[in-house]
Amino acid sequence: MKENYCLQAALVCLGMLCHSQAFATERRSHLRPSFHGHHEKGKEGQVLQRSKRGWVWNQFFVIEEYTGPDPVLVGRLHSDIDSGDGNIKYILSGEGAGTIFVIDDKSGNIHATKTLDREERAQYTLMAQAVDRDTNRPLEPPSEFIVKVQDINDNPPEFLHETYHANVPERSNVGTSVIQVTASDADDPTYGNSAKLVYSILEGQPYFSVEAQTGIIRTALPNMDREAKEEYHVVIQAKDMGGHMGGLSGTTKVTITLTDVNDNPPKFPQSVYQMSVSEAAVPGEEVGRVKAKDPDIGENGLVTYNIVDGDGMELFEITTDYETQEGVVKLKKPVDFETKRAYSLKVEAANVHIDPKFISNGPFKDTVTVKIAVEDADEPPMFLAPSYIHEVQENAAAGTVVGRVHAKDPDAANSPIRYSIDRHTDLDRFFTINPEDGFIKTTKPLDREETAWLNISVLAAEIHNRHQEAKVPVAIRVLDVNDNAPKFAAPYEGFICESDQTKPLSNQPIVTISADDKDDTANGPRFIFSLPPEIIHNPNFTVRDNRDNTAGVYARRGGFSRQKQDLYLLPIVISDGGFPPMSSTNTLTIKVCGCDVNGALLSCNAEAYILNAGLSTGALIAILACIVILLVIVVLFVTLRRQKKEPLIVFEEEDVRENIITYDDEGGGEEDTEAFDIATLQNPDGINGFIPRKDIKPEYQYMPRPGLRPAPNSVDVDDFINTRIQEADNDPTAPPYDSIQIYGYEGRGSVAGSLSSLESATTDSDLDYDYLQNWGPRFKKLADLYGSKDTFDDDS
Question: What residue intervals traverse the membrane (predicted)?
Answer without folding.
Answer: 619-640
